[in-house]
TrEMBL record:
Subcellular localization(s) per the UniProt record: Cytoplasm, Perinuclear region; Endoplasmic reticulum; Golgi apparatus
Keywords: Cytoplasm, Endoplasmic reticulum, ER-Golgi transport, Golgi apparatus, Transport
Cellular compartments per GO CC: endoplasmic reticulum; Golgi apparatus; perinuclear region of cytoplasm
Database matches in PANTHER family: TRAFFICKING PROTEIN PARTICLE COMPLEX SUBUNIT 2
Gene this protein is translated from: TRAPPC2L
Entry keyword Ribosomal protein: no
Protein name: Trafficking protein particle complex subunit 2-like protein
GO terms (BP aspect): endoplasmic reticulum to Golgi vesicle-mediated transport
InterPro entries in alphabetical order: Longin-like_dom_sf, Sedlin, TRAPPC2L
Originating organism: Aptenodytes patagonicus (King penguin)
Family: Belongs to the TRAPP small subunits family. Sedlin subfamily.
Length: 139
């Protein structure tokens, strides 16, 4: 059950949320908003080291009984959160990292679009296709 979310700073409102399947979407919203607090804690704990190393991948934020929640933050403090089923043992840390890089690259493409206003919700067919293909690889 992969979920992908992009949130904008500093208000932490979602710019993009996609979950497959969609029946427990409200539960995932809660999980994502809870994880944003963990992302903020990790960023403040890493402090200057995060800026110096340019390490954007935050790794496993926290595991729950059913899911694992991963985090990623861009240089502009936009937060990416990914929730995956904890029974998926085939998914390694480097694969999660590369999925975040793909998300970040696609997000950068959207930001380069002159018709996109930063802070608006993301409505892009190309971005949707990329996220859907990434989720199908995980399932």
């Amino acid at each position: 059950v992969p979920v992908s979310v992009i949130c904008s700073p500093p208000q932490n409102y979602p710019l993009y949320i996609r979950s497959v399947p969609t029946e427990n979407e409200l539960k995932f919203h809660y999980t994502v908003h809870t994880s944003l607090d963990v992302v903020d804690e990790k960023i403040s704990a890493m402090g200057k080291a995060l800026v110096d190393q340019r390490e954007l991948y935050l790794g496993l934020l926290y595991p729950t009984e059913d899911y694992k929640v991963y985090g990623y933050v861009t240089n502009s403090k936009v937060k990416f959160v990914m929730v995956v089923d904890s029974s998926n043992t085939a998914l390694r840390d480097n694969e999660i990292r590369s999925m975040f890089r793909k998300l970040h690259n696609s997000y950068t493409d959207i930001m380069c679009n002159p018709f996109y206003n930063p802070g608006d919700c993301i409505h892009s067919r190309a971005f949707d296709n990329m996220v859907n293909s990434m989720m199908m690889q995980v399932c």
